[in-house]
Amino acid sequence: MLAKRIIPCMDVRNGRVVKGVHFVNIKDAGDPIELAKEYNRQGADELVFLDITASHEKRKTTIDLVEKVAKEIFIPFTVGGGISTIDDIRAILNAGADKISVNTAAVENPELIKKGAKKFGSQCIVLAIDARKNEKMPSKYEVVTYGGRKPTGIDALKWAKKGEKLGAGEILLTSMERDGTKLGFDLGITRKISEKVNIPVIASGGVGKLEHFYEAFEKGKADAALAASIFHYGKYTVKDIKDYLKNRGVIVRE
Predict the structure, then answer these.
(1) pLDDT tens per residue, range 70-84
(2) Is 64 among the catalytic positions?
């Protein structure tokens, strides 16, 4: 069995790490370079950097900030936000990222996943899915884009399967209802997607206590768990979470 991964996430806006609830009520959470260095020191398995307003503002990801963060860490680094072309992917990878994350652009142009995987390898392409409950969908979850602003009418489970077929190497699944609530991951949709695809699924949205990580792996069948505010505001360190999981029999990286 592969070790489960713990991944801090930095939502970045105007050069600062921020955090909100349900994608709104945004508050400052710190300097991205200093936080990245700290998470690297704590033993995070990977780091995710999301330029959360790039797509909405129709601009590219802040490359210079990506470069500065990449120079300070020695763990796999995923960057998302405002990536819509092969040239964008190349620029982010050249800036020091190991993977890129696409959400809005992938929905609007699914061929971007296919072309990106062919050009750079599936291991570089993370399909980010922001999911919101919709009782009219087969999986009861709908894909939303532009930072939670635009419903698409696309069923989240079907999109995950299509994304895998197109060449995505991983899925970053965020529950909009749980985002920032500290109520725990949405285990229902996490498990549905984890059981239907053959690529790793990262659970995201709602973690508030140690037990939520255990639930993501044991009940949600996720391969990795992503969190933001509990790390940014110092409630737990990565080591706290790994020690807890090891004590409960979950295999994690040292």
Answers:
(1) 999 999 999 998 899
(2) no
CATH topology of domain 5-247: TIM Barrel (3.20.20)
**Contact residues for 51 (Cβ-Cβ < 8 A; gap 6+):** 12, 13, 61, 62, 79, 80, 81, 82
| Distance of alpha carbon 240 from alpha carbon 227, whole angstroms | 13
Phi, psi of 50 (to 5 degrees): -120, 115
Separation CA 66–CA 249 (nearest Å): 36
Tell me which residue has tokens 């409950």: 133
Say whether pTM exceeds 0.90. yes
Q: Is 243 a catalytic residue?
A: no
Catalytic residue among 11, 88, 155, 179: 11
- Taking only the tens place, the pLDDT of each residue in 4-41 is 999 999 988 888 888 766 555 566 778 999 999 999 99
The ranges assigned to domains in the chain are 5-247
Residue 236: CB atoms within 10 A of its CB come to: 19
Q: Which residue in the list 51, 130, 155, 223 is annotated as catalytic?
A: 130
Per-residue H/E/C for 195-219:
HHCCCCEEEECCCCCHHHHHHHHHC
